[in-house]
Amino acid sequence: MADELENAPTQENELPVEPKAEDANTPINIKVVSSTGEEVFFKIKRNTKLSKLQLAYAQKIGKDVGTIRFLYDGERIQEDDTPQSLDMEENDAIDVMVEQVGGRR
Amino acid sequence: MTSQKRPASVALSRYQVHKHRRVASYESHTEPGPHTDDAVDPGIWTKWKDLFRETVSYLMGNQNDSLPRFNFDVPPPTKHSTPKSKCTPRSSTPRRLPPHTNGIAPSNTFASSSTRPSHLPLYLSSSATSSSIANTFATEDEPEYTPRTSRITSQSSSRVPSTSISTVPPDISQDVDSLSRRLRQIDLTTLPPELSRDVQDLSSRLQKMSTSTLTPEVVQNVQDLSCRLPELNFATLSPEHLEEVQDLLRRLRQVNLKGNGVRKPYRGKHIYERRHKVKVKEQRRELFELQKRKGYTSDFSTFEGHLRYAVLLERTNIPPGKPRVPLDQPITEDEEVSHVARAIKRARLSALSPKPARPYSPGLDELNKLNEARKGSLDARLRAKQPRLPDQLPDDELREVEKFKRKRGTVSSAGKEQVNNEHLERLYSPGADGWLNDEIINFYGQLIMDRAELPKYPSVHYFSSFFWPKLTVEGYQKARINRWTKKFDIFKKDYVLLAVNHGGVHWTSAAINFKRKRVESYDSMGYTRPEVFKHLRNYLDLEHKDKKKKPFDFTDWTNFSMEDYPQQENGYDCGVFTCATLEAIARGEERFIFTQANMKYIRNKMILEIGRAKLSDPR
């Protein structure tokens, strides 16, 4: 599964690739790093909502999006966050974490 | 001497005839006044005198011919000294004396008189001297207690030893017999009434002496004889006779009744001496038993030796000023008796004194009760200082809580955190469904950080619960944790708070306390978390190097975990404990007043706070 995910980003560049510019439509490469250190690369436009990326990632790994958390520099990524709003740069990483629960040892 | 004896036998027949005159003579004896006539026939007096001489001589064991002849005209000046000198050889060699040197017939001729029982009561004189004899014989029934020869002690001084009955030669007994016989032959009619009574009395006494073996009574009779002689009516005697009789008496007193020549030092016995000795022995035994109870292990004879030693030792303890007894002197009975009496008193005091109380050793129940009481008092003192959390929210807030529970979808949002109704359910679901997840925890952490913006609260940063797996699994560099603090300086905060999830089942809280320079970990299950200390210290160092370009100074920094941190009592409240702890730390609290009993209240309060997206004011 990890291998599939690794190869996935290159095939999944459905988002339009645009020349490098400060334009909001300029695509940006973002990697999603799981808690086990596996990385999945995405190329998205700067003004595309990251929730689209989250859904795509959840689909890829076959999990409900409600059970995984996406963090950028330690902060939760919200519904309407975009790479632009978060000042994301090329090859920035999004951490994906699984739900944590606890009640007793 | 034989020639002097013969005329006396003539008067034998008349003895019985005048027997009845004794009463009259006794009466006249009490009143010596009328007997002033010198009617004593010289011949009779001579006989009477000779009889005494014989008595004295054989009792003293002297040879007849060595006895001084009575010379009534010229009293011999050396008379009283002679028997003394004769007395000593006689007493030293008693057996050498021929049994019948004075020609008295052998004792078998008086068989009839010798069969008389020697213990028959004797005639007792009414005079004062004889009454002491009466005392003597009155106690004859208990021979052991009878003091012997008490009158000899008083009359003859200690020079004359007491009689040792077993050593008196039997021939004296025979002589006594013959003497009594001859006394009976005296014609009492020729005597003055007093004398005749005395002679009768004397003869009867001597008869009672006449046993084959000398008994104590014999000795006593002889003594009695000597003491009765003064009862003679001296008024009727001529001065020469008087002197003669007095001399006789003196010599009689010196009679050595003891035959073996060994003079034993006289030791007078008290009439209760034997009883006393028994008592002393009993006392010793009693003392022995008392000491045995106190742990004395040896036998009685050893104890007696010990007792003697103790008495001896006591002499060394005589207080100064009192007469000291040299240690080489034998122990007197008085010393021993008084010592034993005192020792018994002491031993009884200690033996009968109340026993010391047994050392207090409480049973398990008592110990538990004591511990409970101690704990209770400690708790009471500790809790008295602390405000107690309420058991439940006020009614209006409870209604608000119910409103939040009914909400669907996203219930609340704060900062970048959101909580929807599914996550919030965990706060009011019972049992294992009540486990809190990262959404609730991190939302609550966000609320804590929001409140910390207020100036009255310490500055706080809360790291999301994902900080811990990032740091520990991937590491500071790979997880790019340095970017987590790109917007602020962690080292300027008062507290850095973390919720740490252990293995997906347990929440604990951790803090970096810059105020007190402590790395803190709080586990509601009671574990000290060394890995928390290790990783947080490592983080501090790397973060400092990253931001400040030099290692972190850990001087004075300690790891801290609280011993009396509140503990959860079920399997699902650890997340609530964690949130409550972080909230309290963010207020600068160092004590946690919540307990398991407050969990229901805290859960409702958290729903309220999450629903309001604002922490309540601490109560």
TrEMBL record, chain A:
Domain Ubiquitin-like per the UniProt entry, residue ranges: 26-103
Any one Pfam family match given in the protein's UniProt record, by short name: Rad60-SLD
SUPFAM superfamilies (alphabetical): Ubiquitin-like
Region described as Disordered: spans on this chain: 1-25
Superkingdom of source: Eukaryota
Family annotation (CDD domains): Ubl_Smt3_like (cd16116)
SMART domains reported for this sequence: UBQ (SM00213)
Protein name (database record): Small ubiquitin-like modifier
From TrEMBL, chain B:
Start and end residues of each stretch annotated as Disordered: 21-40, 63-117, 137-176
MF annotations from Gene Ontology: deSUMOylase activity
PROSITE patterns in UniProt: ULP_PROTEASE
One cellular component term from this protein's GO annotations in UniProt: nucleus
Keyword Transcription regulation included in the entry's annotation: no
Composition skew (Polar residues), residue ranges: 104-117
Biased composition (Basic and acidic residues): 28-38
Keywords tagged on the record: Hydrolase, Protease, Thiol protease
Cross-referenced Pfam families: Peptidase_C48
One Gene Ontology term from the biological process aspect of the record: protein desumoylation
Biased composition (Low complexity): 84-95, 146-173
Location of the Ubiquitin-like protease family profile domain: 417-585
Family that this chain belongs to: Belongs to the peptidase C48 family.
Protein name per UniProt: Cysteine proteinase
Species the sequence originates in: Schizopora paradoxa
Lineage: Eukaryota, Fungi, Dikarya, Basidiomycota, Agaricomycotina
